[in-house]
């Protein structure tokens, strides 16, 4: 068995763990009676310990990894004009695709009518948490940290990104005068990447436990009353991922969508199982470099930025949820209300933490913008875990497509590596 595992790539091991965890969880939910062994020792004991422990280990890496990789990526781009072009293209891509995503979601919602005919007595309500609404001006002001050390300690990703880019630009401008400091950041970046590879060695175990716990707790019974809502979200996610992104990849980068999906699919599977964009940052960067020939100086800039401001999957959930809540509670929304939703959801995606479940909190801001009851979120919460996993996979796919497009337009991609179809190991 050890020899077989050694021959498998990490991505293959993670995918097998994902499927195995789903199957075991479903068996536990439907065929194993509730007992101390099943619930306390396995599901809430071993599965919870190793699954949550793995997520915490990944979260431990995020702040120092993003900080160092962004500084190094910014330094390696060097020229501020080039950096400006890359930054504008990246942010523009992220904002446009988010607006497209929410528009698709509203359209799908209007076609499927997920809230009409819903039996409110058949669904479980959870306690919803409201997020404080932030104005457009304050949203942009919050990008600038009052205290960068506090931002690092609190994990405020948007402020960390701003400060890291600023440091990288200054180090690139000063050149030889600050060569020792620049080398120090490069060394720290290597340390964090090595630490990431160490943590990733136990990824198959962490993924197995996370997925097994999720499915052993929810099964499929809780989905039935909400099936139209789920179908709406999943359909919009599929259109965004396999139609919108792939068309953009073909038009703007002239790259094969089939090859992209084949090579990036293991990362999508990892994102699905962990439901956190931040945890996939090192895996995305490594996969884009080793399997698609994307220069790390580009991906080290675009991927951490995308994990913070590019939440297309989350925006889709919010769009369908708005239509669902309006129909379930008999509230009529005007064309202006829908435009407000598109704008608010796009703004809410900026600075949203790439951690599990955060989309439900920002959803309260979107609901408040058009006068929908926050209590409606409690209906969605019970079945959101699976959708959260799926939309995270879409989020990180959008980041990767943007990276390939930006790298290709700047001549920072190795065509031979991208075109090569052989399976490669992501991490040794």
Q: Which tags fit this structure?
A:
single chain; about 425 residues; mainly alpha; about 75% helix; about 0% strand
What does this structure look like?
- This protein is mainly α.
- The chain has helices at 2-7, 10-31, 36-77, 80-112, 136-141, 148-154, 157-174, 179-200, 203-218, 227-253, 257-274, 281-292, 296-309, 312-328, 335-349, 358-369, 376-381, 384-409, 415-419.
- Helix 3 (36-77) packs parallel to helix 7 (157-174).
- The radius of gyration is 21 Å and the shape is globular.
- It starts with a helix and ends in a 9-residue tail after the last helix.
- Residues 124-132 and 423-428 have low confidence and may be disordered.
- Overall mean pLDDT score? 81
Shape field: globular
Sheet/helix structural class: mainly alpha
Strands, total number: 0
């Amino acid at each position: 068995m050890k020899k077989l595992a050694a021959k498998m790539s990490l991505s293959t091991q993670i995918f097998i763990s994902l499927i195995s965890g789903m199957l075991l969880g479903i068996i536990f939910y439907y065929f194993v009676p509730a007992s101390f062994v099943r619930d306390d020792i396995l599901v809430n004991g071993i599965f919870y310990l190793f699954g949550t422990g793995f997520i915490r280990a990944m979260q431990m890496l995020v702040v120092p990894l993003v900080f160092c990789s962004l500084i190094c990526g910014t330094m390696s781009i060097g020229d501020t004009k080039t950096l400006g072009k890359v930054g504008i293209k990246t942010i523009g891509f992220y904002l446009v695709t988010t607006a497209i995503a929410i528009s698709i979601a509203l359209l799908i919602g209007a076609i499927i009518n997920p809230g009409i005919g819903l039996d409110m007595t058949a669904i479980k309500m959870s306690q919803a948490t409201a997020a404080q609404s932030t104005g457009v001006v304050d949203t942009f002001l919050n990008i600038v940290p009052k205290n960068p050390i506090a931002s690092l300690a609190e994990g405020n990703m948007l402020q960390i990104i701003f400060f890291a880019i600023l440091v990288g630009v200054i180090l690139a401008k000063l050149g030889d005068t600050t060569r020792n400091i620049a080398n120090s950041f490069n060394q720290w970046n290597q340390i964090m990447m090595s630490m990431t590879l160490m943590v990733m060695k136990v990824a198959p175990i962490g993924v197995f436990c996370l997925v097994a716990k999720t499915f052993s707790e929810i099964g499929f019974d809780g989905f039935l009353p909400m099936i139209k809502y789920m179908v709406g979200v999943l359909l919009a996610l599929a259109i965004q991922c396999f139609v919108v992104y792939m068309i953009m990849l073909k038009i703007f980068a002239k790259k094969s969508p089939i090859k992209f999906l084949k090579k990036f699919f293991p990362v999508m599977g990892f994102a699905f199982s962990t439901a956190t964009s931040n945890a996939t940052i090192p895996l995305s960067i490594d996969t884009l470099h080793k399997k698609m020939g994307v220069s790390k100086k580009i991906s080290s800039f675009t991927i951490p930025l995308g994990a913070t401001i590019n939440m297309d999957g989350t925006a889709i959930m919010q769009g369908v949820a708005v239509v669902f809540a309006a129909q379930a509670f008999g509230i009529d929304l005007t064309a202006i209300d829908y435009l407000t939703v598109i704008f608010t959801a796009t703004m809410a995606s900026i600075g949203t933490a790439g951690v599990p479940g955060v989309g439900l909190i920002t959803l309260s801001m979107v609901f408040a913008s058009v006068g929908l009851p926050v209590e409606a979120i409690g209906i969605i919460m019970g079945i959101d875990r699976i959708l959260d996993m799926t939309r995270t996979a879409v989020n990180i796919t959008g980041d990767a497509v943007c990276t390939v497009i930006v790298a290709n337009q700047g001549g920072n991609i190795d065509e031979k590596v991208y075109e090569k179809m052989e399976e490669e190991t992501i991490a040794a």
